[in-house]
Each structure stands twice: as structure tokens, then as C-alpha cells.
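Pair request: fold both.
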Amino acid sequence: MESKLNKKKILVIGIVAVIVICIIVAIIVINKQKEEKIDVYINTNYFITKIQRILNEEENYDNKTVLISGYIHYDESGRIFIARNGITSSGKKAFGLMLDGDFEKFSEGKWVKVKGKIQYLVSDYTTGEKVPYIHVLTINEAKEQPDDRNVIN
């Protein structure tokens, strides 16, 4: 009689262990899918339009995961950007987003693909104006590089 009770206890413990393992695996898979989800893709199509939306619509883009391709550009103060050139009335101009985080630095003009989180930084405390930047999660040299860096939109 006692051995039947022990077998039942072992069986119940085994079933509970399997259920717990299944729940843990499900949680890991769900979290992995959340990490891999890309909310915003920015490439050649409508590059400048998408950058302008990010600049002007913080409520729609804050903390969203972005995948963007472009070339590395350093401004005069040494800040690093991912950019593409746009044509303006005054000629060519680099349009892009500032990059932040602990990542390998690439040389000026190197084409890269960046995955990161769009964040906003207060740039003027008197007005509360914020500027967007990408907190880099991954950065890799782009396999394909456009022949022309210019985008018109």
C-alpha cells in the first residue's frame, strides 16, 4: 500500500516538473520573440520621411526597436550618426539619427546595418526639446552597399 502511494507521489511530482519546464520554455520563447521583433524598418524607401516622423512623433516611436541601414557619419563634435544623403535646396545634406551605446566604432562612410531602440534625449532643458537617438543593440557592416548615398524623399 505504501509503495503505491510513493509511486503516485513520484508520478505527480514528475507531471508537475514537466508542466513547470514547459512554462519556463514558453516564457523564454515569448521573451526571445519580443527581443527579435522589429517595430520600425528604415532603408532607402522614404528614409528622410521616416527620420522626420521619428523627430516629430516621439509618442509613436519612443522605445521602439528599429532596423536601419546607412553609412557612418561623424559630426564636427565627434558624435556618431547613421545617415544617408538627401538633396536640399542648398545641396547635399546628411540626414540620420545619432547612435549611442557600447559598440564597435566604424570609419566615416562605412555602410552598416543597426538594430537598436529609439530613445529621446532632452537637448534643451529650458524648452524641454528632445532629440531622438538609437541605443545600439547590434551593429554590423552592411553586406550590400548602395551605389549612391543620395535619397530624395
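--- second member of the pair ---
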Amino acid sequence: MILREPLATEHAAVAHLGRSGFARLGDYREAITGWLRNPGIASRVAVVDGALAGFVQVAVLDEPGDRHGYILAIGVDEAHRRRGVGAALLREAVELLATSRTTLAIDDVRATVAEDNLAAQALFGAAGFVRGAAPNTAYPAGQRALTLARPIP
């Protein structure tokens, strides 16, 4: 497995993977494409045997009195699930934020997962994420979203 920045020629494939993975939560295709073009957002893809297996996108959110790393999106192609791709992408996301922790002045990284997505909750839990103090929210299609957090090492 290779983790790297996505090539411009892969943006459409990443957006498609995001759309198919998040379809029940809302239409994220344009958001993911916009995040790929945004220089303030770090994106990585996982490539397995030459094929796009997954992606992750992270940013620093600067909210009033609360600056933190945030995993905007993480998605794994169905054919590559439960094979370590998601765990590798999640480690990469935390490491990206950890390498700039002092410069970015952040202490934790957060993410939201659908309340009924037990696989995602297990993935994040195995990486040290717990339900944080931040309030839970909802996805555009109305599903309850749990906020998870972990300190940055």
C-alpha cells in the first residue's frame, strides 16, 4: 500500500469514492472536490496494486476559542475494506497534524461519524478516539453524527 498526495488526474475518482461512500449522509461530491483543490486542506490517497483504495482529508478548524485538527473525510473503497486501508489512512491523518502541531497550535484531532456506522466507530476507537466534549451534530440527510476526539501525540 502506498499513501501519497492525490494526483490531479485522480480528483474525480476520489470524489466518486466519497460520493458512493457518503451517499446516505448527503451529497459530498462537490465538498470533497473543493477540499482537494484547497491548499489549506491536506489530502492523501491509499493506492493498492495500482488502484485507488481510499482517501483522507484533514484541516485545522479555527473556531472561536477552539482550534483543533479535524478529519473532514475518510473513505475506503468497498473492495478494500477490513484490510487495514482505513487504519493506515487514519494514522496518516493524525501524523500529518502531529508534524505541524506546534506551528498550528493544536492539541487534538476530531472527527464525526454516523451514529449507526459501527465499523467507523471501531476504526476510530482503535486509534484512540473517544466521544469528545464537543456536541454531536447531524449530517445533511439528518443522521445523527457523533463527535470523536483524541490528543495529538
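Observation on the second member. The mean pLDDT is 89.
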